[in-house]
Structure formats: C-alpha cells, structure tokens
Amino acid sequence: MYGGDEVSAIVLDLGSHTCKAGYAGEDAPKAVFPSVVGAIDQMDVEDTENNAASADSKSNANPLDSEKGKGKRKLYVGSQTLGFHRDNMEVLSPLKDGIVVDWDMVDSIWDHAFRQLLMECLLIDPKEHPLLLAEPSSNIQLQRERTAELMFEKYQVPALFLAKNAVLTSFASGRATSLVVDSGGGSTTVAPVHDGYVIQKAVASSPIGGEFLTDCLMKSLESKGLTIKPRYSFKRKEIRPGEFQTVDVDFPNTTKSYKLYCQRIIASDIKECVCRAPDTPYDEAAYLNIPMTSYELPDGQTIEIGADRFKIPDILFNPSLAQTIPGMESFAEVAPSVRGLPQMVIESINRCDVDIRRELFSSILLAGGTASMQQLKERLEKDLLEESPQAARVKVLASGNSTERRFSVWIGGSILASLGSFQQMWFSKSEYEEHGPSYIQRKCP
User: Is this prediction's pTM over 0.85?
Assistant: First the structure.
C-alpha cells in the first residue's frame, strides 16, 4: 500500500490536442498546453546560430518552456515557445490515433508538465509524488510497459497508476456504469464502462475529431477565396489614432507544418465561436439563404460565415459531408468505413451484454473539447431517439460547464487519486523492482 494521503498525487492527461497536468483533489488542471512539439534539426540550428534572429529568439525565450537537444534535434514545448517564430521549426505530434509514435517528444512534454508544476509549487519534488496517468481505452501492452519503465527509471516516481480515459470521465460524473462519447482533438471514441471497467470488445472509434473539423473549415474558407494569415506573418502599425494598417512580414524559412499550426489556432477559434450543430441533418438547399455571422481575424479583416456554421459540425453525424468540401477529397478513401456519432453509439451498445444495454442508453456521457460545441447534446439525443429500440430510455448527459466537459478525464483522475480507498491500488516502485514493467497489466487492468 502506498501511503499517499499526506502527499497529493500528480494527475497527467496527455490528449491528442492538449496536455493537462495538476494535483489530485483540485477541480482544474494547473498546466494546460498543446501536445505538439516544435523540432529543429541541430544542423539547421548551427546554420542560424550566427544570425541576429537567433540572438533575438534567445532574448525572447521563456525559461518556463522546455528546450531540449535530443540527439540531432532541438525540441520546443509549451504554447509560449511555439508561439514564437523560429526558422526551420517543424511542428510535430508524438501521437497517432492515441498511440505514441515518438517517445523523445512525449518525454519532453512530460518534462515540461513537471517543470510547470514545480514552478507553481517550488517546495515539491516529483520523486515524492505518486502519478496517475490517463491513457486511451485502446492502449496496447507494449505502450503501458514503456510508460511504466520511463516513469520509474527516469522520473523516479514512488508509485504509478494508469487509468482509462473513459473510466475517468465516468467517475467525473459520479457514475460507475455509463457510455462515454469522448470527442477530442484527434478522434472520437465511444466506450462503454461497466462497474468501473471498459468493455474492450465494444469500443468504437472514428478519426473525426476537432482537428479534422478545423481542417474542413479552413479548406472551405480557402475555396471561397479567404486565407487565414498566421499571426507571425504581419505587423499592425497605427497610422492614425485608433486606425491600423497591416504590414506583411516575410519569413522565408518557415516550415509548412509551423504555418499550418498557426493557421489552425485561428481556425479553431472561428469554429468555437460561430459553429453549432444543426437541429436536423444538414441540407444544402435549406441553408442557402441563412444569415451570415461575422468574425474578425487577427489581421483586422472581417469575414462572413454562412452555411459552414452548421455544415462543419454536422460532419460528426454524417462523415460523407466532408467529401463535398473542396480540398478534402482524400478523405473519400476512408469515408465509407467511418460512421456517424449515433451509429457508433448504437453499434457500441449492441456489442455489450443484453442486461446492461438499457442502463447504457440512459447514461450516455459527452466529453472532450469537441463535445463542448453548441447544440451537440440535443442533436445527438434527438438522433438516438429515432434510431434506438423503442423500449430504450435515451438520455445524453453533458456538464453545463464547458471547462468540465473539456477536462472531464483530468477531473475524474483528480477525484480517483484523492480517494482514501484508492491508495492501496497504486503500482509502487518496490513492486516494479520486484516484478518488472509487465506487472502493470495486473495492477492497472
């Protein structure tokens, strides 16, 4: 048993879009930053070291943000560091479909999270705090063992627990059994949870998440001749009091991925501000004369957005809509195999035992950043009522607070790790030394 009552555990949730970290028992994470990493090849760094630009970047670099030279790469983590333009910097994600593809990057993200928490509370040492890590419902054994190895060997944590995202979301809403619809940045996953365990055979997932919708919106705006200027590519000069002129700034060594990252931040904000799920399936003719909504871009130009406000969110319900957007034709190859949200929910429930289906229908939980979209809960409930068996009482639940929806996995971890009854569940360092990393499968089912 790990005596963790006096020392609060650290809860870490590395999502496909953002990384959340904080202390168990608190109601929101202390550190939230993008889970992408800026990487510059050391060769490029040496070339630009002599430039005045690199001197400038040093003076502006924030000591909070991680800068790590890994072999031939220099890695930059944190929204402040990524917001600063650097020549030849690629923006890469260490995760693909929730699975880690680059451990160096994940390592630098965890490093940054611990450093952020250290800054908040200088009297702590990560070696004294047990760590609860959220993981995707479909995580594989190899990944779990590698994680345990890194945490015990490198960070020297005294105890560790890996908990499934869906289970934590369920706990955050005070339920042991529910159907969790988690729509995040990289994908949407539907996972049934029964008595605190995920029913693996019934997990359904789709590659349509917040980032896919953001890309669809960007392509749709581009097809209408509207281009989003990244923040680094212009300066605003005051020509008369209250009147500004936009002056373009040229950075020839900007990588495609960095430009796309900066454009996505703006497009994502447009999506969050103006988009809402339509009450009925999207129909081109019906939305032809819809009133426009205006949005002011950072460079001062105002754009008008019409039918896209409803068309983009409806892709969650009808994935084939994405093919109608110019520039998204490549999606056509995978489109037939991608199901909409209501179909995924029904398919997932049908794979579970008959005895618990009724209970799952009546406690469908919406979670994740994309789930915070206006009218999404009402539309999903309406579609499910039409498609589910008549005997089923369909109830879609979502926290009224969008912060709680966005951080529901982290909040569930915070509740779980602070429970007195949970303290004997930890996978301790002594058990790791005795049984090795494969023991994590028994300790964290």
Answer: yes
The partner residues of 92 in beta bridges, in order of sequence, read: 37
Tell whether the model's pLDDT for residue 46 goes beyond 60. no
What's the pLDDT at 117?
79
In a domain, 187, yes or no: no
Is the residue at 436 inside a domain? no
- Structure-token pair, residue 217: 């919106």
- pLDDT, one tens digit per residue, over 392-419 is 899 999 988 888 889 999 999 999 999 9
Q: Please give the average per-residue pLDDT across 273-295, as a whole number.
A: 91
pLDDT band for position 121 (cuts 50, 70, 90): low
Is 91 contained in some domain? no
pLDDT above 60 (res 61): no
Domain count, the chain: 1
Q: Please answer whether residues 396 and 366 qualify as being in contact, where contact means their C-beta atoms are separated by less than 8 angstroms.
A: yes
Check if the beta carbon of residue 211 is closer than 8 Å to that of residue 91. Answer: no
Q: Mean pLDDT across the stretch 335-339?
A: 86
Cα gap 326→220, rounded to integer Å: 7
Strands (E), 71-109: 73-76, 90-92, 95-96, 99-100
Q: What would the two tokens of residue 284 be?
A: 């081109």
* DSSP 8-state symbol, 79: H
Q: Can you name the residues that pair with 34 across neighbouring β-strands?
A: 18
**Confidence at 2, pLDDT banded by 50, 70, 90:** low
Domain with 255, as residue range(s), is: 210-331
Q: Reduce the DSSP state of residue 159 to 3 states and report it.
A: strand
Whether 423 contacts 159, CB under 8 Å: no
Evaluate whether residue 416 is within a structural domain. no
User: What's 251's domain CATH number?
Assistant: 3.90.640.10
Provide the token pair at 183: 């729509």
| Spatial distance between the Cα atoms of 54 and 35, rounded to a whole number of angstroms | 24
Residue 429 half-sphere exposure toward CB, CA atoms < 13 A = 16
